[in-house]
Design a protein that fits this description.
Elements (H helix, E strand, L loop, with lengths): L15 E4 L3 E5 L7 H9 L11 H12 L14 E7 L8 H9 L2 E8 L4 H7 L6 E4 L5 H12 L8 E4 L2 E4 L9 E7 L8 H13 L9 E7 L3 E5 L7 H9 L11 H11 L15 E7 L18 E5 L9 H13 L8 E8 L6 E7 L8 H13 L9 E7 L3 E5 L7 H9 L11 H11 L15 E7 L8 H9 L2 E7 L5 H7 L6 E3 L10 H13 L11
Parallel strand pairs: 3-4, 4-5, 8-9, 8-11, 11-13, 12-13, 14-15, 14-17, 17-18, 18-19
Antiparallel strand pairs: 1-2, 6-7, 9-10, 15-16
InterPro entries: ECM_Assembly_Org, VWF_A, vWFA_dom_sf
Protein name: VWFA domain-containing protein
Keywords: Cell adhesion, Collagen, Extracellular matrix, Repeat, Secreted, Signal
Length: 551
């Protein structure tokens, strides 16, 4: 990280603090003036040791003793203040007051959690969800290094120059509580039946805005295979006129929904002075993108902000009203943000999972190898199920245990409500038995659980996922059934402990990246974020499965 900075008394300055029960300063912001000196001292750092982990006290210490003028901070000169916090566990003390105090003086906090860090805690400490990172183990830190560094470079300085979609423009400071808000709505064939709910959502949002040519302005764009402006930012200066226009919207139609092309269109034709944008006056530009499915084109190049500043997910279009308060609260916070942390462009993505459905099967090690970790396996399965959208014509779940042979706890079509599925998982008893015949269990799941007769929907092209937990090496050959699952389009995630055979588990997995290793089942909760992230990536991308050589 330091190697990427421009360390110099007049440019970037660096300080390092270690903490456990109490914090210890390794060096202050004004201790070293060259990159070489900073690197030498980082390389010679010795581990502090100690317990418990008092993160709250450490954060307050940094505010009171490090980010001060006497220690080299240039806060009074409006130099961005960035704190990168590394934590490997849950704090023993309360972090909330210290976090608020740091944010109150404009400090941007980036949090990197490893191993036993509390996910909710690191998200609450970080300023935005995009500033919270998690690595299952410290060995994986190098893999997210660039993401962390990129987050540090996103701080807006108080300077009046800003990049306007790649062009340099002079931005005049703007002190009025106003915004240019563009709604980019999914107008594809997929959203036709639920378009009244979409219009209702926009109306609710508009009703809480202060519409006026000198205050909030609104534009609406629909997209499918192309994008069309319903009205731009110049069109209406009264709230009633905007509401009437929204009520009168007709569904665009078309397929597929090309989000990339729509973003490009908005960038080139809506966030412009000609269309009523007040970008050059320093007015915050807010894009609310409503999407009901995967984009039919590449979204990476045309995105207005490289990553969304704020992302929300609802299970159905009818749930859209539930997020209006969150969005309005976020908008107010952005208005009140100080000039160090205020982003001129805010991209809010609302993903509606209305059209998504999956078949998810959990294949759980029920042998003697897993008897001490069965509660932890059950806990991770519960967490994954909690994030699913269970219901008729939506996500379905089945659970199977295996040892010498496989036993079904319930099939894909056994339950249609999340409460029933969770209740069955919580009351599930450990199967026991040996040996561990993974190959036989994989074949059983393929033939008897993903079958249409018990709820499998492969004939409807519904994505199918298998999670397999293993605490040891298989007593039989896994290659043929593993390959068969891949050929049937079933994407397998494998989770193994130290006694599992890594090569065997990677062979079973859809790709090697779909294998997760923990030293023992007690550490399962630490990989939950990584498993969830890989599942989302699998849903959104086409990957090449692990190819198994046949004899």
């Amino acid at each position: 990280m330091v190697e990427k900075l421009n360390v110099d008394e007049s440019n970037d300055r660096v300080s390092v603090v270690q903490y456990s029960r109490e914090p210890s300063v390794e060096f202050f912001l004004n201790t070293y003036k060259t990159q070489q000196k900073v690197l030498e001292n980082v390389r010679s750092l010795r581990h502090k040791g100690g317990r418990p982990l008092n993160t709250g006290a450490a954060l307050q210490y940094v505010k009171d003793n490090i980010l001060t003028g006497s220690s080299g901070s240039r806060h009074q000169q409006e130099v961005p203040q960035i704190l990168v916090l590394f934590t490997g566990g849950r704090s023993n003390d309360d972090v909330r007051n210290a976090v608020e105090n740091l944010k109150g003086i404009g400090v941007m906090i980036i949090v990197v959690g490893t191993k036993n860090a509390d996910i909710l805690e690191i998200q609450s400490i970080s300023q935005e969800s995009s500033h919270a990172f998690f690595a299952a183990d410290s060995n994986y830190l190098s893999g997210i290094e660039q993401q962390i560094f990129s987050a540090t470079k996103k701080v807006d300085t108080a300077a009046l120059q800003a990049a306007s979609f790649g062009k340099t423009a002079m931005i005049r400071p703007h002190t009025h509580a106003s915004s240019d808000v563009v709604f980019l709505l999914d107008g594809s064939d997929d959203s036709q039946e639920r378009f009244p709910d979409i219009k209702d959502f926009v109306q609710r949002m508009v009703a809480d805005l202060n519409i006026d040519s000198n205050k909030d302005r609104v534009a609406v764009v629909q997209y499918s295979n192309t994008a069309d402006v319903n009205f731009d930012l110049r069109r209406y200066s009264a709230q009633d006129d905007v509401l009437d226009a929204v009520r009168g919207l007709s569904h665009k139609g078309g397929y597929p929904h090309n989000i990339g092309a729509a973003l490009q269109y908005v960038r080139d034709h809506v966030f412009t002075s000609e269309s009523g944008s007040r970008l050059l006056e320093g007015v915050p530009q807010i894009l609310l993108l409503l999407s009901g499915g995967r984009s039919g084109d590449d979204i990476r190049t045309p995105t207005i902000s490289h990553k969304p500043n704020y992302a929300l997910s609802v299970n159905d279009y009818e749930e859209l009203p539930s997020v209006t308060r969150d969005i309005l609260s976020f908008k107010i916070k952005r208005r009140m943000g100080n000039k160090i942390t205020l982003h001129l462009f805010t991209q809010i993505v609302i993903f509606v999972a209305d059209s998504k459905k999956n078949d998810v099967v959990f294949l759980i090690d029920g042998s003697y190898d897993s008897r001490n970790g069965f509660e932890e396996i059950r806990g991770l399965v519960e967490k994954i199920v909690e994030s699913l959208n269970l219901g008729e014509n939506r996500d379905q779940v089945a659970v199977v245990q295996y040892s010498r042979d496989a036993t079904v706890n319930f099939y894909l079509n056994s339950y249609s409500s999340k409460n029933d599925v969770l209740s069955s998982i919580r009351t599930m008893r450990h199967k026991y038995g040996r040996p561990l015949n993974i190959g036989k269990a994989l074949a059983f799941v393929r033939d008897n659980v993903f079958s249409s007769s018990v709820g499998g929907r492969s004939a409807e092209s519904v994505p199918q996922y298998l999670y397999i937990f293993s605490g040891g090496r298989s007593g039989d050959d896994v290659r043929e059934p593993a390959q068969s699952l891949k050929e049937n389009g079933i994407k397998t995630f494998s989770i193994g402990t130290k006694n599992a055979d890594t090569l065997e588990m990677q062979t079973i997995s859809f790709t090697p990246a779909h294998y997760f290793h923990v030293t023992n089942f007690n550490n399962l909760q630490s990989i939950h974020p990584s498993v969830e992230a890989t599942l989302r990536g699998t849903e959104e991308t086409t990957e090449f499965p692990t190819v198994i050589g046949k004899k």
